[in-house]
């Protein structure tokens, strides 16, 4: 029956009847059905083909239906000329406007009429009839830039004519419309004014292929729609930068339930940015669906993401297929999800879809969730997840490393004497089990296999392994770099942070691959005199310093806020400048445990702050002292009670993260290429070598004795190997000699030849 009366809706339904409605005679069955239903609220005409005369007859009858609220007109012009579509839509629109209806839903999807057709509904969309519109579906219309302009102008006109009362869309869908950045910016203007969206679907629109401006505008607009529940940006070129920008908006979306970013090329860095935001309990707490299919996400980033999902207990659907995890990475992700109780959320396709090239599911059918994985077990062989040469022409993707002069200089600095080989090698150390207590199949391997690395920055325990390892294992269960089999900082990072915070009770996120918990490692010991306990806390002073009087103009609250802002925005020169004006007081400031916890900085952040601050203001002794104290806080984190439990649960101490960051800054370790901050630090090694090594020398001269022996030994090994690898750069060698001299004076019996 074409007429259906439900409890709330009176529906006239001719959907999918494949009717060819050319003239009034063809439209007569529809017109009669509408006459029989004077209280019609829903009209379904989808799946037919409507001509101009037929639309005129239907539009005339529509003028008699003021109760109409939903018009479902998708796939309504199959086989029609473009010149027919706009007049037909105008006839329908005129009838609805004449009736004074109050539409809540309009679906015009799958009508490929382009900009010449969309003008047929612009009058309707800007009229009072659509002030009540809540759902607008415009998928697969071929709008392009011009069509999107017509659409957004109509919506903005309605908003302004109604003085902001409407239309207030809750659902907007415009996938497959070639909107690109131009269209994204136009829509962002509309969304910024509406602030009412609950569902947004903009898949397959080429957003981002010509730069970041469209994504940036869209992200800013999304953040102004706090009721958003569903966000689908699949198959757009967000890239890592877009993923990072989108991550910033998540804290403004407390009601988000579905985040769909398939085929967006967010890669490792974008994934980490999203993961770091999602990890927070107050960010998207109601997340039920997360789709990151086909994003070239690497193994370490994937494991980090899995760990960060622990607090998302409502998650029911997780798709991480077609990324670059490799079989080991897939195993890590599955075990991680299992350990945090979210393994059932993993989207496993039904049946046996395995092929010759797919992941085997002989042992666990959940491996089918990764049957399109593109990764390799050797993370070193994977391409740069953000800066692969030749992959994109966008300036933000391919233009950051084109300075040939700098490349030649650094190639000389980072290369060894042998062509194609690095002089640095890493010995594979003893494995003590996989993450979260799962036994590692390689746990019985001997410490004999050396693994050659790519360009620049690692070390070899080959000649003095036994003495160093025995001492480190006796003290800590393993040496500082015991789990290191690569100098790639991205590999290091996934193995370092324990996730337990103060008061945690056996958190399943603590362990080998746990991410950092901000603000938990720098708190000083309670009820302990500083004169008896080495302190790693930033600004902790000696007894003499504590007894000194703080300047009369010192305002601690302002100082704390300034420091916090600097650590959060390390590239902000204005904040750094403000900080320098407060330093004369800070040299005598005994900052409290509570304040330090609130500052919430990671070791990497403190190290980066130290080097950046010393580079700009190190000529002032007070400024250099602040940089040194920042390094001390990062490198002695393991001396605090809060870190004791974490140190027992992982192979590498918390101080190891700080040491890795120091080594990146002085060129002795490769940067995490997905982290632009580390990449930039590595590029600036030659520029700031003198200042950076002077800071390190001063730090070791003043506080080297307070460092853990494993930290001192590992620094000595790495820096010695680094010096030997670059004899052609005398200034670097001379500065490294000074650093090693300062370190050797604090090392007692350790001899490095």
Automatic annotation (TrEMBL):
One of its GO terms (cellular component) is nucleus. Residues 347-443 are annotated as: Disordered. Gene3D superfamilies: Ribonuclease Inhibitor. GO terms for biological process: nucleocytoplasmic transport. Pfam families: LRR_6 (PF13516). The keyword Repeat applies. Residues 411-424 have a biased composition (Low complexity). InterPro entries: Leu-rich_rpt, LRR_dom_sf, RanGap. Keywords: GTPase activation, Leucine-rich repeat, Repeat. The keyword Repeat applies. Residues 372-405 have a biased composition (Acidic residues). This is Ran GTPase-activating protein 1. It comes from Schistocephalus solidus (Tapeworm).
């Amino acid at each position: 029956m074409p007429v259906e009366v439900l409890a709330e809706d009176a529906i006239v339904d001719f959907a999918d009847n494949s009717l060819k409605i050319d003239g009034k005679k063809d439209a007569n069955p529809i017109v009669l059905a509408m006459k029989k239903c004077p209280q019609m609220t829903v009209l379904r005409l989808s799946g037919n083909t409507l001509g101009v005369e037929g639309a005129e007859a239907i539009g005339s009858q529509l003028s008699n239906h003021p109760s109409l609220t939903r018009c479902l007109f998708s796939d309504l012009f199959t086989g029609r000329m473009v010149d027919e579509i706009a007049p037909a839509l105008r006839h329908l629109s005129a009838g609805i406007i004449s009736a004074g209806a109050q539409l809540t839903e309009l679906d015009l999807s799958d009508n490929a009429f382009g900009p010449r057709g969309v003008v047929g509904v612009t009058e309707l969309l800007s009229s009072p009839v659509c002030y009540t519109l809540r759902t607008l579906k415009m998928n697969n219309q071929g709008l392009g830039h011009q069509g999107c302009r017509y659409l957004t102008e109509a919506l903005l006109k309605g908003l302004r004519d109604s003085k902001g009362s409407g239309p207030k869309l809750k659902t907007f869908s415009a996938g497959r419309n070639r909107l690109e950045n131009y269209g994204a910016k136009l829509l962002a203007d509309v969304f910024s004014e509406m602030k009412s969206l609950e569902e947004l679907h903009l898949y397959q629109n080429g957003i981002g292929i010509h730069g970041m401006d469209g994504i940036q505008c869209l992200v800013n607009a999304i953040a102004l729609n706090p009721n958003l529940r569903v966000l689908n940006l699949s198959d757009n070129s967000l890239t890592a930068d877009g993923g990072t920008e989108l991550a910033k908006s998540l804290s403004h979306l407390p009601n988000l339930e579905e985040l769909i970013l398939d085929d967006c090329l967010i890669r490792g860095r974008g994934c980490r940015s999203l993961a770091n935001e999602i990890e927070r309990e107050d960010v998207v707490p109601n997340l039920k669906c997360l789709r990151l299919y086909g994003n070239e996400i690497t193994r370490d980033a994937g494991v980090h993401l899995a760990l960060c999902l622990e607090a998302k207990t409502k998650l029911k659907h997780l798709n991480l297929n077609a990324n670059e995890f490799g079989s080991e990475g897939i195993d890590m992700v599955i075990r991680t999800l299992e350990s945090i109780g979210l393994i059932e959320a993993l989207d496993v396709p039904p049946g046996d879809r395995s092929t010759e090239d797919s992941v085997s599911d002989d042992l666990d059918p959940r491996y089918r969730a990764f049957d399109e994985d593109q990764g390799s077990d050797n993370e070193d062989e994977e391409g740069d997840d953000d800066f692969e040469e030749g992959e994109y022409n966008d300036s933000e993707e391919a233009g950051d490393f084109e300075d040939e002069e700098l490349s030649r200089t650094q190639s000389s600095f980072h290369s060894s004497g042998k062509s194609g080989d690095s002089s640095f090698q890493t010995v594979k150390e003893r494995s003590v089990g996989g993450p979260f207590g799962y036994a590692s199949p390689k746990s019985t391997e001997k410490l004999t296999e050396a693994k050659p690395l790519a360009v620049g920055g690692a070390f070899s325990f080959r000649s003095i392994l036994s003495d160093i390892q025995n001492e480190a294992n006796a003290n800590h269960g393993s040496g500082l770099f015991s789990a290191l089999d690569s100098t790639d900082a991205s590999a290091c990072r996934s193995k370092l942070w324990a996730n337990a915070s103060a008061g945690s009770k056996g958190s399943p996120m603590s362990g080998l691959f746990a991410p950092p918990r901000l603000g938990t490692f720098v708190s000083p010991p309670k009820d302990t005199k500083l004169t008896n306990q080495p302190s790693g806390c930033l600004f902790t002073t000696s007894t003499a310093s504590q007894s000194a009087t703080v300047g009369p103009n010192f305002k601690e609250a302002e100082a704390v806020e300034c420091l916090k802002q600097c650590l959060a925005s390390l590239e902000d020169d204005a904040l750094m400048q403000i900080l320098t004006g407060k330093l004369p007081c800070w040299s005598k400031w005994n900052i409290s445990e509570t304040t330090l916890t609130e500052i919430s900085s990671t070791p990497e952040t403190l190290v980066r702050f130290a080097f950046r601050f010393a580079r700009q203001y190190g000529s002032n002794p007070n400024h250099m002292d602040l940089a040194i104290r920042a390094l001390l806080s990062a490198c002695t984190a393991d001396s605090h009670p809060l870190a004791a439990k974490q140190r027992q649960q992982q192979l590498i101490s918390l101080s190891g993260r700080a040491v890795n960051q120091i080594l990146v800054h002085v060129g002795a370790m490769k940067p995490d290429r997905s982290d632009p901050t580390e990449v930039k630090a590595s590029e600036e090694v030659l520029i700031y070598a003198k200042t950076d090594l002077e800071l390190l020398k001063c730090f070791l001269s003043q506080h080297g004795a307070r460092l853990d022996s494993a930290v001192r030994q590992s620094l000595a090994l790495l820096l010695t190997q680094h010096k030997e690898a670059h004899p052609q750069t005398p200034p670097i060698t001379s500065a490294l000699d000074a650093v090693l001299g300062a370190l050797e004076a604090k090392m007692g019996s350790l001899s490095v030849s």
